[in-house]
Amino acid sequence: MEILTTLRQIREKIPPKGSRPRPVSLVPTMGALHAGHQSLVERAVREDGQVIATVFVNPLQFGPKEDFNRYPSTREEDIALLEKAGAEWVYFPDPSELLPGPIHFRITHPVAELYCGAFRPGHFSGVLTIVSKFFHLINPDRAYFGMKDRQQLFLISRLARELSFPVEIRPVETVREPDGLAMSSRNRYLSPEDRKHAPELYRMLLQARDRYAPRSHADRLDLPSRIEAQMKERGFRPEYVSFVHPETFLPLSSDDPPGAATILLTAAWLGQTRLIDNIDIPGTHV
Ligand code: PAF
To answer: pTM for this structure?
Structure first.
């Protein structure tokens, strides 16, 4: 695996479209890699890609009070994981070359303001801006994103489609710890006590999925607040619990039938750690 740090190396090493022996497959990350990232790279390799992973803690997507300055960094372990997973190149951008000055252009979308975006103003526009730069600079054939960051995945799919980036976005299932906790670089912030408790979040989503057979709109509209109350009883501080339309990512509305297929999306704090998770709920109406 080759380690690249400059844009010149990117231009020299990544073959241009038209002369690629295999599809160039991008796996963008912020480092502190875990088995979830590994599964993105392995999947891209299995699908015949020549993988370029990027490792860059993107300042544009952090709010002023967020964890940019303490975001975990595990460079040597990241290199070993990417190599083992079969990546061809890893790009550690030099921040002063990738972001030479302030960026005033921002890419955004109405869905970027909802759910996580309502609690992290500017976050998704920072993600979309940096991902657009990677798409321009690397010009990948495919890009892989995890389904744990479901809203991010939706927005990046729309970015590629609406702005005609010639890249195919491939979603990859969330990788979970044996007890169900979705893998995340931020799980290392959990205290040992909170770590034991954290899988409750996913268990509540599973329960909600199994009980999701609302008979009426009122019944369904009531569900998020019932789940939030349950979360609070169990020591979480929920930011939101939302039923989302799988196609538009807008909140389910009264135009949707009561048992319409949906994605249940949540973010909640446990101690000092913000956890996000989601689950697909198949339609129950006939
Ligand atoms: O999902 C992430 O780790 C980041 O949001 C991404 C896509 C690498 C952009 O910085």
So the answer is: 0.96
